[in-house]
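Amino Acid Chain and Its Fold in Token Form
===========================================
Scope: a single protein chain, as residues and as a discrete description of its fold.
Amino acid sequence: labelled as such and written in the usual single-letter residue code.
Position: the record begins directly beneath this header, with no further notes in between.
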Amino acid sequence: MPHLRKEFLWRVLGMMGRKKEFEYKEETELKRILNVMDLTFLGISSMIGMGVYIMVGDLATKVGPACVISFLIAGFACALSGVCYAEFAARIPCSGSAYAYSYITIGEFVAFILGWNLALECTIGTACLARAMSGYVDTTFLNGAVENFLKNAVPMNIPAMASYADFFSFFLMMVFAALVCAGAKESTMLNNLFVAVNMTTISIIIVLGVIHADFANWSLPATPAGGNGGFAPFGISKVMEGAATCFYAYTGFDTVAVTGNEAKNPKKSIPIALVSSILCAAIVYGTLSLTFTLMWPYYDPELATGHPYPYVFAQLGLNWAKYLVGVGATCAVFGCMLSSTFGMSRIVYAIADDGLIFEGLSKINACTRTPIRATVVSGIFTGAVAVIFNTDQLVDMTSLGTLMAYTMVAICILILRYEDPEMETIEEYSTRNFGSGTLNKVLNTPVTSPVPNEMTSSIVKASALLAVILALMIGSMIAFFSDLLTSEPAVMIVAALLAILFVAVVVVIGRQPQSKANLSFKVHPVPILPIICIFFNVYLMLKLNHKTWIRFGIWLVIGLVIYFTYGIWHSKQQLAPREKKTEEKKKEEV
């Protein structure tokens, strides 16, 4: 009996570590119909939503004119993750984004955890948009009639939940789910229209900002609101805190990466769209913050009330411009909602198509060539979250899911860059180079192979794991013990030793031979860029509050139950060996 238990345990562990085999197919169940412009606009709408009309004002009051620097730093940090996604899209153009990349590179269990978390991220992120959109449409076009009615009809006095059941947000969620079900080309054409109107509005706002710019607003003296005056009145620390806040404004570009089975020539179009959309977002946020802080003094508390542009334009005598802002914000939130719903449905479809969650969700409609079941089911669940939850308390979980995905993609880039599909085993390499097959001799001989082999790949994998652990330790010291770093010698010495070890690990990775695979897009420099990306993302995850981690833990437990009771036994990778044996038997019979 103990022997059977041990055998069963090893079997389960083996199943958890199995990897997905990827084979690029020109023809897929989904329709390859999206061009570079469709993909780029999909990324732009995900990043430049209604928040662009709100965040600039709120950040200006906290950081001052230096919020321009905050946006640029955040854009650079986001670009690090973006180029990692771009290389993966060039290598493995498939649906599922970071989930699929992890499944192919690391293994099934890690991929499921990431995919399950991405599903939650998409659900909460889209629910927040639905709730915000409900309030915006109600306030702008219906004078708050819907909110007043629902507050009286379906009040809710439950802690951590909304004050009333917002069924209007559920209705809006279903409308956008229906639009996504209609077809990839149809929904992206509508998204392109929303993006075009939004970008036109932003361009006009920037022009108005240039016309009414006053450089005196960048050199104001100390104000009653606090600060030392000048361009960075609250100091460099506030600029960096602002950059952390701004980072989340750029999240959403990974929606482009889920279109691997619907993009034309995805190995080229997806990397181009990823880089272009992130660059566009960085230019928009940087230019808007620049012109906004030149237009009006940063210390005005009215800028943080949620309607900074209408307020400033009214003060400048441009009352007509507030209607322009209303049109732009409406199109921005519509486009963001559409792209979020699109991305969410593709993540659910990808996980279901691998058999890790209920396979019925992977069915493709023959007419529209879209995953209607995945779209409708995820839409209903998201709508329910929007109805009953106070999404403000859950929004940090979207950040956690996004940062985990970014970190995992950077780790996968490190692993793949130092692997070749047909690399030698340790025994083959040692025989060819040293005339001996002993592992001890190989490990004690300098690596001189010009191409990756099993030994060098193993070194990189172990070093990458150690780099993540060290990033956690160093990040924790910076996040939670920053005061001790400058006052306690012992803490300073420990931090210095960890930093030296971290650098040593990076050097070890860098000394290994890289793959010579010819790709349409490659990250440079490696391993420096992925390592910086990992460290920055780990640090931001550590800064999230403990309640976010508790909620994540509960969601993770639910996911583990589903995986171990359903997914691990229905995985298509579980069935693959059986199918191969059947084919081999048929060939032998012939």
User: Anything to note?
Assistant: The domain at 41-412 is CATH 1.20.1740.10 (Amino acid/polyamine transporter I). DSSP finds 23 helices and no strands in the chain. Residues 108-141 form the longest helix (34 residues). Residues 426 and 454 are 6 Å apart (CA to CA).
